[in-house]
Amino acid sequence: MTKKQWIADGLLLLTAAIWGFAFVSQKVGAAYVGAFTYNGIRFTLGGLVLWPVIAVLDRKNPPSREVCRETLLLGIPAGLILGTAAALQQIGVAYTSAGKAGFLTGLYVVLVPVFGFLFLRQKLRLPAIAGMLLAAGGIYLLSVTEALTIGRGDLLVLIAAVLFAVHILYIDRVAGRVHALRLSSVQFLVTGLASLAIALFTEPFSAAAILSALPAILYGGFLSVGVAYTLQVVAQKDAHPAHAAILLSMESVFGAIGGALLLHERMGLRGVVGCAMMLIAILLSQKE
Prior knowledge:
The chain is mainly α. The protein is 82% helix and 0% strand.
């Protein structure tokens, strides 16, 4: 590999680490503020973080009114899908561990090719099918008890993973029509502002609680949403697509590491085997 590719792979691994440890910040934030308050502030911050980068781009190539209008029209549905997924995930994280949430969220990597086949007539490869079956087994070991019941938190995170897969397919269909950073900023702001609007009517406001959750909110907003996404865009210009997919899928592993190191979470043998199956499923689904 070239030096640029090594640097790109390093940035992608850093991105995966930031996203993985974000599950810890979500768990911490959930202890102080409601899901919509947490997501509202962090996604609004994340959208605003991208503005300086966009301003530099606009100096070189100012967008027309038509481009701005199309970006807005495409970004609003993206933000609503993302906001719903993020809300379910954040609510679910409060009732499950950061490690389990990371692996269950990673299921979206397996679901994307499956949904592409079912709804967009995209070719479904054998590794994706094998990954889907392994993921199903991993989910069973991670989340389903011997009484064949699934915890509320795990179920909400699973539904969120389905919506994250839908969001990725939507972005894949529209991203080529507008600049990626502008589209991201719009969708983040839509997610953030919509979440704040819901929070005003459904969650108690407490400045003290927000202040207590501020480190987790800042991590989620500036690092997880703003910085990590920018690193991903920069790195994927030079990284091999297969390398990028595999490295970003390590988000699940970093989520489990973060939960163990910072929150002292522990998994039994059943959970460890389930996590291993999920990780193999994620890697298999990205095999060319």
